Amino acid sequence: MTAEVVVGALQARADPAELPKVRRRLAPDEPAIGIRMRELFDVARWASTLPLGEVERLLDQPTYEARMCAVCVLDLQVRDRLGDPARQQLYLRRHDRITTWDMVDRAAPRVLGGPLLGGPYEVLHELAASADPLRRRSAITAPLLFVRQGSDADLTAGYVVASALAADPEPVVHQAVGTFLKHAGERAPLMLNAFLTSHARTMPRSVVRLALEKADPSVRRRWVG
Length: 225
Hints:
The chain is mostly helical. Helices cover 66% and strands 0% of the residues.
């Protein structure tokens, strides 16, 4: 199994009707093949034993689908071994090849977040301070794992990152903040209420509404009417 074999499998599934749909979430000059996401995930599962060096070569490919497949493979490879530092380091070192929000969302919780369970969390603060919106999205998307599998200390660390990004002007970032808060608030409603008390005035209203999607209606009315 090599990166070239995986690229060939993706190209064999090219569907011209899918290309316009794919292009809507890409930069104008970003190359794409045009594949149904279900088929891309099928290829990633088939390639889930791809050696780490070949995953990096897949990240070097120009097309969105090849790089999306690479992050899917990373996510699949760590599902039974959360805390894999080699795959986390590849994600961080080649973050420049992660060019869309859905690449972040696919891999950041397990690949980036897994090794951070129990701390330390400095890498999240470094990402949150980045000039790159997608790195900032990684910073707040990784803690989604903390909501599901982390300790109270992990969850608190996620809220610290959310505090740093609460007023972020980029939709690709502040929407991810809202998603984290929505799930974190379901686990710890009092923490969400305290967070909103401190930050709701500076957050986009759409983010406040997203954060409260799973909240009790009486709580929602307090913040969004």
